[in-house]
Amino acid sequence: MNAVAQEAPSYELVVEREMNIPRDKLYRCWTEPELLKEWFCPKPWTVARAELDVRAGGSSLIVMRNPEGEEFPNPGVYLEVVPNERIVSTDAYTSAWVPSERPFMTAIVTFEDLGGGKTRYTARARHWSEEHRTAHEAMGFHEGWGKATDQLEELAQTL
Amino acid sequence: MNAVAQEAPSYELVVEREMNIPRDKLYRCWTEPELLKEWFCPKPWTVARAELDVRAGGSSLIVMRNPEGEEFPNPGVYLEVVPNERIVSTDAYTSAWVPSERPFMTAIVTFEDLGGGKTRYTARARHWSEEHRTAHEAMGFHEGWGKATDQLEELAQTL
Q: Which residue from B4, B10, B56 is facing A56, i.e. has the nearest CB?
């Protein structure tokens, strides 16, 4: 938990992992559409489409596809981008600054350089209520984000 | 209404006014705490305190005081800042990026240079639901923001 998170309840779910991978490779996997499509959805789900305008105020559209071929669009907006260090985005807006129908979470991804080519990778999902946090956990947050993180790690190692 | 607003329902309330004032003076009134305190609350309400870290991701804290001396803190975060042109902020976060207890609105203020020292001033309040938009209107949005805008115009003319 960082200092900010302790100031207020932020209804957070977290995946944290040390990886034997330089952080710029992990950052590429988050910001290059062709790479993101490879790992972002826990298989057998896939990413049908990824459009990423990676800058504060830029839009992202990630369309997930289930094994039956149904598609689920996830529009969002980047709130803060520090190359190789930090990406913050939210589904509270569908573009800058159009409120979405259902603000659910803010994602904060940080890539901390541990030296020697290692990175502490942290992905936080912050919600606006305990109800949403609990729902996200019940929807399989830890398994889903855990599997996606495995896929991310595997892909980044090939870069 | 701009192009973005037409793409999706944004549950908007708007104050728009042409002013015989150069936009940099209006921008100063929004961004310098000592100026903002003079106009931001419709009198007899006042601003007890204003702390404005005017940059994307920066926090704002505006404490309003009613005539009985009760104080109402309004924390928020700037989402986008283009000097003299545009300020976007929201109460969905209390600081970058801590979700607030009650995300209510996004404020989009634009200062459009009309030439000859004139400005089209537009302040939009966008909400996450029709319910919140209606509640804001019922709380006296048009009267309150209208009076504040009178005060802003009056102050900016003295700069």
A: B56
Q: How many whole angstroms separate alpha carbon B149 and alpha carbon A8?
A: 33
3-state secondary structure of A89: strand
Kindly provide the ipTM of the predicted complex, given to two decimals.
0.89
- Its pTM stands at 0.91
pLDDT in tens, A60-95: 999 999 999 999 999 999 999 999 999 999 999 999
- Tell the burial category of A2 from Cβ atoms under 10 Å away from its Cβ (0-12, 13-18, 19+): exposed
Encode pLDDT of A141-159 as tens digits: 999 999 999 999 999 999 9
* A127: contact with B, CB 8 A cutoff: yes
Task: Determine whether the interchain pair B103/A92 forms a contact, defined as Cβ–Cβ distance below 8 Å.
Answer: yes
CA distance B126 to A152: 36
Cα A90 from Cα A126, distance rounded (Å): 9
